[in-house]
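Support request from a user on the community tier.

User writes: "When I paste my structure tokens into the form, the page sometimes reloads and wipes my input. The last time it worked, I copied everything first. Here is what I submitted, just in case something in the input itself triggers the reload:"
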């Protein structure tokens, strides 16, 4: 699999595939965008792992940086689209959120966090399964100001993309471009997601 992805990283198509996956997974959280980012980063870093000269490694460094920026940008754009959908959803979306305990809780916590300047919840939720979707829709439905939401969305996208690319990069350099390296990197990704979900669901003191 890594060999086929590795050949894909040599063409501009990898960025289109990553961008589409990251952009759409705010609506379809089942899309393996994180898996794709890690696999692409592992394949791209495989060239530098066995390279003896800095000159030869330079193109791979640019590929990793481009992958990071591509994933982060698509993440922010997806957040904004979901935010706009939530904001324009009107009473129908408000009723749907009211019927969902999870969405109602997320909307309440997000509103309080943004009002207090504690939008770190947006960053944490980016790592949790479906957390990005819940937070983005809730922010729009709650009519939160985009200037309050956007900076945290940018930080969340950069942190998430950097984490995925770093996992692929260091996995390739420490263990080589093998399925073991990819498996360990994915375990770290899912571990971060489980940790983020725990932090979101953990009751706050006094609540």
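"...and here is what came back when it finally went through:"
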């Amino acid at each position: 699999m890594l060999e086929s992805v590795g050949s894909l990283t040599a063409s501009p198509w990898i960025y289109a595939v990553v961008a589409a996956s990251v952009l759409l997974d705010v609506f379809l959280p089942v899309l393996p965008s994180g898996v794709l980012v890690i696999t692409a980063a592992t394949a791209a870093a495989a060239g530098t792992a066995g390279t003896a000269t800095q000159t030869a490694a330079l193109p791979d460094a640019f590929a990793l940086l481009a992958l990071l920026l591509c994933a982060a940008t698509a993440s922010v754009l997806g957040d904004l689209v979901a935010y706009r959908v939530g904001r324009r959803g009107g009473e129908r979306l408000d009723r749907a959120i009211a019927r969902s305990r999870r969405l109602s809780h997320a909307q309440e916590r997000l509103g309080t966090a943004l009002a207090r300047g504690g939008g770190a919840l947006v960053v944490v939720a980016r790592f949790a399964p479906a957390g990005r979707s819940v937070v983005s829709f809730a922010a729009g439905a709650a009519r939160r100001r985009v200037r309050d939401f956007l900076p945290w969305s940018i930080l969340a996208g950069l942190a998430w993309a950097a984490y995925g690319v770093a996992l692929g990069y260091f996995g390739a350099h420490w263990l080589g471009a093998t399925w073991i390296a990819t498996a360990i990197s994915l375990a770290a990704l899912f571990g971060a997601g489980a940790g983020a979900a725990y932090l979101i669901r953990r009751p706050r003191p006094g609540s």
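Agent notes: The reload is a front-end session timeout and is unrelated to the input. The mean pLDDT is 76. Residues 106 and 201 are 9 Å apart (CA to CA). Escalated to web team.
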